Each structure stands twice: as C-alpha cells, then as structure tokens.
Amino acid sequence: MARMGGGAAASYAAHRARRVFTSAARRDELDRRFELRTAEQVVDTLGHLKGAFMKIGQLASYLDQGLPEHVRDALAQLQSDAPPMSRELVEQTIIAELGAAPAELFAEWDPDPIAAASIGQVHRAITVDGRAVAVKVQYPGVDEAIRSDLDNTDTIFAAFAQLYPSLDPAPIAEELKSRLVEELDYRLEAANQATFADQYRGHPTIHVPDVVPELSTARVLVSELVEGVPFSEMLTWSAEQRNLAAETIYRFAFGSLYGLGMFNGDPHPGNYLFRPDGRVSFLDYGLVKRFTPAELDGFGRLIKAVAIEPDAARLRDELETLGLLATGADVGDDEVFDYFSHFYEFVRHDGVYTIGRDYATGTIRHMFDLNGPFGRVMKSVNVPPSFVVIQRINLGLYAIFAQIEATANWRRITEELWPFVAGPPSTPMGEAIREWDDTRSAPDPLPR
Known about the structure:
With 448 residues, the chain is of the alpha+beta class. It has 21 helices and twelve strands. Among the domains are: 2-79, no CATH class; 290-440, no CATH class. The termini are far apart.
C-alpha cells in the first residue's frame, strides 16, 4: 500500500509538471490518462492484496457516483475479475478440504476461473451425477490477511469518534469484525445460502442457487451454476427491463429483512446475474446479518414516524430510544427530522420516483459532510450495531439503483413488504408474487 501511494504521488508530480506546458484541450486528455493509469495501479495492487483492502476497492467501484466514469470502470474489475491464484494452489486447497483432486471429484473441471474476488475464486465443473456447478475456492492465507487488516479497525473508528462526538466506535468495529470474519467460513455461507434458497424456491423473479452440501467445506463451496448476464450488460437494456431488475433487487433486500429477519449484506454488482424478464440470481451469502424481532420492531417504529404518520417529535424519541441520536442533543426536532427523512425520501413519496445519481451521491455527502447544513445533527449521531450492516446495504443499493436509474412507485412496493402495512400488490411482479405466495401457503390436497 505504501509503495502504491508513493508511486501515485510521484506520478502526480510528473503529471502536474507536464500539465503546465500544454494547451487547455491537451490538459483534459492528460488528466484523463493520469486518472485511468492511477486507477489501474490501484486495481492491480488491491487485486493482489485480496481481503479487506480489495473490498474497499470494490466499494469504490460503484458506491460514489461522483468518480469519473472511466475510473469506476477500471475499479469495477475488482468486483469479479481480480488476478486469480495459480491452478496448483486451487488444486492443493481442494485436496486439503475434500481429500481428492478436482479431476477425481468432478466429471468435468475447468481450471480457469470464471470469477475471482476478494476472498475466493469460482470455477465451473460438472458433478459425477451430471449437475453443472460453481466451485468457490478460498485463497490460501486470506483468513490471516483479513484478520490482520481488521486489527486496525479500532484505530480507524477511534479517529471517526473525534469527528463525531456521539459516535461509540467500539460496537461498530466489533460488528464489522464479526460479520467479515464470518465470511471466511464457507460452512456458514452454505447454511445462509440454503436458508435463502428455501425461502425463495419457485419465486417468479428471485433465484438463489442451491448448495451441494456433500462437496462443501470451510474453504470450498459448491452450488448450482447460474445462467444470466452481468450488471454491466444489464445496464444496456431498455428502461423497462432495468426497472424490472431493480424491483427484484429491492424486493429481495427488504422482503428478506421483513420475511426472514435476515439481510444479505454485500449488495454489489458482481453478486447479481440478470435475465430480461426481471429474474435475478443472487450470489454470495458470506455477509448475512440476522435481526431480532425487537430490532425489526424498532425499524418499524422509525418508518411509521418518518414516512407513514410523519411526526418530528416522535421520530426524535424513537431515534434516541434506538441509540441513533444522543439523548438531549442541542438540535431541534425539525432539524433532526429533515436530516433523517432524507434516507426515506423515496418511500415517503407516494408516486413514481427515480433513484438517480444525485440521490446516491447526495446520500454519501449527507452522511459525511460535517460542514454541510446538517453538521450539528451529524455530531449527535451514533450507529448502533443493528444499523451498521443496514447502512452498508442502503448505500450499496442506492448506488446500484443510481446506475440503473431505477424508477418505480417505491412507496407502494414497500407497503407490500412492510408487515405493519401488508399492502396489496402494486405491480405485475407483485401480483405474480402474491399468487406464488398463495400457492406456497395452500394446504397439500394429497393425504400423507
């Protein structure tokens, strides 16, 4: 990391020197070339580091819509196209975990990975009984690397506490450590994935690949091979098709929260495969957060106070009760309401709403710009453990929807998902889901 930073600094100095002696038109070209070259250096360094640092690069590739397009395109390689490990290391890992080489375990085995990301890489294979599968193999040593990276989180969040006086950094750091360390055990991921697969089996638009448990271990995860196109290709589709994809992603995220009490906590473009009719296959269940009924009830009380029956004083009470706002903070109720209502803007509005780039980038600024209009409120804000992963998911979803330019009546869709409203279907997809749900809950007509 130090070498990368030093190299970038030296390159920038040379770039500034060249810029002085060129025309205005030429300067734009030089700037673009420098940005792209630097992004490529970052991709190469983080791609080889893997682990937590690579996850930061993945986030940067889609989270901040303010980055130049060509820089985000370069960083997007970290979503699934990082430098792979050697074939020998893959084989050694599989032998250590399953007791035999891939050629013995599978009828067919592709030694070239179809995806390589922060913790492991994925290979195609066909099982001896003829099933096409994806085999995810963890990088040797990545567990020690991530644990080492996470040793620095206490220091990082202690620095945040200097900026946000009401922030208690210890629970945030501990929550992040717990969730990220869980990702290292593929047995937990397999259990998470199986739960989601059972919940959505036969769903009209949500697909979760089945796990092959007899071939899965702590560092190897085998599951059904999924067909579909990547996020970048889906973005070239018509607005109608993109909006169907966005509706499915939205229903999966918040339908899982209220239907399962679980959140798949890693919403980034590399974890989705799309079909034009709105069907989406959801991959990667390493980072899953489970919520208690009391936590879900707290989320519901917030929503009622900010969106269903807006009440500034009541919202403040709920925020203080949940630990999101320091008790007795020297800020007005309306100021608090204006700050927090931003995060619910698209569900407060009963009408067609586009979650665009301005909203996604504005949300990041809204959370971190202490010199902005809500600086006083922000200095009184805290993030309890139950909200750490939710904020990660919200920011990720907003960024993804911004690229899609996701447009819908989000209020009506969300009312279908809120258990304290249980609204009627508001879209054709909602109608299809209601029929599927009725079929699932219908009694079995055959005697057993």
